[in-house]
Amino acid sequence: MKRFLFLTIACLFSIWGMAQIAADTYVEVLYFHGKQRCVTCKAIEKYTKEVVNADLAELVKNGKLRFKEVDISTPEGEKLAEKYRVNWSSLYVNKWKNGKEECNDMTRFGFQNARNNTSAFKKELKQKINQLLK
What we know:
It comes from Bacteroides faecichinchillae. This protein is of the alpha+beta class.
């Protein structure tokens, strides 16, 4: 009986530990902007939201993907912008694993593709998110 109880408790802790590891790994997409935005900045916002909220909605639902829009002209946004050394529109796709962050600045890519090569922008953004979740 003691062995059975011990094995049951050990299994429960193993399952709980694996669930914790899975829950501690996610991708966070950060879109920084100010009050004034150009057409390209608006395109980055629009297509990033499409990818996150429509194409990858299941990952959002499961807590594996998070999106945060940050207005750097607000006091809260200014603090976060300082952390990332952002002072204008920017796009970051970051992996969080066990409390440690892996930053990926995709700003240049966003400005090069979001407006004039939308399909490439969306495809690459999805690929990056999926790659970071592996």
